[in-house]
Amino acid sequence: MLMDSKKPLHIMAVASNLKMDYGGVYRHVEILRRAGLLQVYEVGRSRVLSPLNIEQIRDFITKAKGFNKQR
Question: What does the pLDDT look like over 37-61, one tens digit per residue?
Fold first, then answer.
């Protein structure tokens, strides 16, 4: 979803789209931020997401899908 958007997304928009609560999405986002895949910045009282390395993210997704098919 974040990869398809041309502009940054609010964490609440991601949570709503995935039908998850904010806390659950934020925990995942924090892991991705620490891995250097996402940038999180504040806009007012909201947190906004922006991908940092799109090619690395796509590569990770491709490998994860291949791993899941092997199971």
Answer: 889 989 888 889 988 888 888 888 8
What does the buried/exposed string (b/e) look like for 5-41 if buried means 16 or more CB atoms within 10 Å of the residue's CB?
Answer: eeebbebebbbeeeeeeeeebbeebeebeeeebbeee
Q: For residue 60, what is the domain's CATH number? A: 1.10.10.10
Q: Is 43 within the bounds of a domain? A: yes
Inter-residue contact 27 to 65 (CB < 8 Å)? no
Residue 1 lies in a domain: no
- Rounded to an integer, what distance in angstroms lies between the CA atom of residue 47 and that of residue 44? 8
| Residues in a beta bridge with 48 | 10, 41
| pTM summary value | 0.70
Would residue 4 count as lying in a domain?
A: no
